[in-house]
UniProtKB/TrEMBL annotation:
It comes from Schizaphis graminum. The lineage of its organism: Eukaryota, Metazoa, Ecdysozoa, Arthropoda, Hexapoda. InterPro entries: NA-bd_OB-fold (IPR012340), RNA_pol_III_Rbc25 (IPR013238), RNA_pol_Rpb7-like_N_sf (IPR036898), Rpb7-like (IPR045113), Rpb7-like_N (IPR005576). Gene3D superfamilies: Nucleic acid-binding proteins (2.40.50.140), RNA polymerase Rpb7-like, N-terminal domain (3.30.1490.120). Residues 83-200 form the RNA polymerase III subunit Rpc25 domain. Belongs to the eukaryotic RPB7/RPC8 RNA polymerase subunit family. CDD domains: RNAP_III_Rpc25_N (cd04330). This is DNA-directed RNA polymerase III subunit RPC8.
Length: 203
């Protein structure tokens, strides 16, 4: 679910911070630049892991600031395809369900990936698994806020910068055609052991 990715960046330290500890200023800058942001084809950056190297600082004639080339590593959220994760149901519609991990909310389980047979309850706006219990049908609800175990089946990155055609940059299904999220995941609960965790303790 989490990986450590290496980056290289030229960090600018303003004249007002010249007396500050260099490493502390660089840490603040890198976290401000990348934390909670998606890097294309890398994933959702969470927090600085460590600094590998700080190059020589350079002050240009027209600048009061100094510039340092920094090589560092960042903790990144990017589950691999087929990985099993835990999330909670954020919302549901006839198209499927949106799940959240608490810090990442662009996880979509389409209707075709629900337990079979399932139906969408329009009145309560929840998905219902019609489980066959020795000939008797037991309705198991996937209510909002329920903890769900799911498997990652695909991911996608979309360039959402202004002026860029937000086309699919990676193969795989997308949650909806109107999605503007730069990074999203498609999951499935259509397997034994997947879905609402409470289902499998009650059966």
């Amino acid at each position: 679910m989490f990986i450590v990715s290496e980056f290289e960046e030229v960090v600018k330290v303003q004249p007002t911070h010249l007396e500050d500890d260099q490493v502390s200023r660089i840490v603040i800058h890198l976290n401000s630049m990348l934390a909670n942001k998606v890097v294309m084809n890398v994933g959702l950056c969470l927090s600085l892991f460590d600094i590998l190297e700080i190059g020589d600082s350079i002050i240009y004639p027209s600048e009061g600031a100094y510039f340092s080339k920094v090589r560092f590593r960042f903790i990144v959220f990017r589950p691999f395809v087929e990985e099993i994760l835990i999330g909670k149901v954020k919302s549901s519609s006839s198209d499927g369900a949106v799940l959240t991990t608490g810090f990442f909310e662009d996880i979509f389980v389409p209707a075709a990936n629900m337990q079979n047979p399932s139906r969408f309850d329009v009145k309560d706006k929840v998905w219902v698994w019609e489980y066959d219990n020795c000939g008797d049908t037991v309705e198991l609800h996937m209510d909002i806020g329920e903890t769900v175990r799911f498997r990652v089946v695909s991911e996608q990155f979309i360039d959402t910068h202004p002026g860029v055609d937000s086309g699919l940059l990676d193969t795989g299904e997308i949650a909806t055609s109107k999605s503007k999220s730069p990074y999203s995941i498609v999951g499935t609960v259509r397997e034994p052991g997947l879905g609402v965790i409470g289902w499998w303790t009650d059966l």
